[in-house]
Amino acid sequence: MLKDVNYVVTTAKEIRGMSDMQGALEMLKRADELTPDHPAIIAEIAQTYEQMGVASKATDSWRRIQLLGETNAGSFYELASRRLGAGPAATSAPLAMPGASGMEGEKNLRLGACQVARDFSVNNGERYTVRVPISRAGSQPVDGRAVNLEVFFFDRVNGVHVAQTIAPEPVETWQSTPVDWSGSGEETLDVVYHLPALSTAEIQQHGRRSYYGYMLRLYYNNKLQDVAAEPRDLLEFGSAPGTAPAGVNPLLPPPMGR
Q1: pTM of the prediction?
Q2: Does residue 227 share a domain with residue 109?
Q3: Domain identity same for 20 and 35
Q4: How far apart are CA 36 and CA 168, in angstroms?
Q5: Which pairing describes strands 209-220 and 186-195: parallel, antiparallel, or unpaired?
Q6: Is residue 108 domain-shared with residue 20, that is, in the same domain?
Q7: CA 112 to CA 115: how far, in whole Å?
Q8: Which of 16, 18, 139, 216 has its CA 20 to 30 A from that of 183?
Q9: Residue 133 is part of which domain span?
Q10: Residue 251 backbone dihedrals phi, psi, to 5 degrees
Q11: DSSP state of 256
């Protein structure tokens, strides 16, 4: 019965009407695992979180619908956009990182609001581009050779768990050259996540995978400048500055490779 979307949504609404939010959420999560990325189920999860007052998780669910794209999400895409107050692309501004108060001293660079867009022309797996604006924080010139952006992508595993991606290393491309932060004082980097379709053997080894989100750490002269993540729970990943890319978020299952 949990594969019958209409049944799931109707029953979940009835359960919510009896103020059993946890019961409705558990049912929806099981249905989400059996029928991954169905916008009606995700929307119901988002609305349940809203009624529970868990705004961050509701926002993350609405963003999942946006990332499906208007064609796949249908009318739920517009609903998600209204709830998020956002346009066609999912956007996120830099967020305070746990322990960020330790980022002392004058900052040379900062992250702008990132945008995520899915390339639906790709038939082999999933491809997303994260557009990362990097702005000069002061009037001092920026040495591009001293800039380092660490990018961590994460997958949703079997529709339930989250782990570091097993996708190949992302491709990074600056939108314009030279990259020197002159003029407007902002340079934009496109980072491409591409997870090819998994074989049966790979699914048995790594689980069914789909894009979940990213975490960014920006360094200048080996000093942490700024951080950003989407969804927000990924800020906990490697929260201590200097954590290696292989670091493990204690709140997430052990990574299954990069």
Answers
A1: 0.62
A2: yes
A3: yes
A4: 23
A5: unpaired
A6: no
A7: 10
A8: 216
A9: 91-236
A10: -85, -10
A11: -
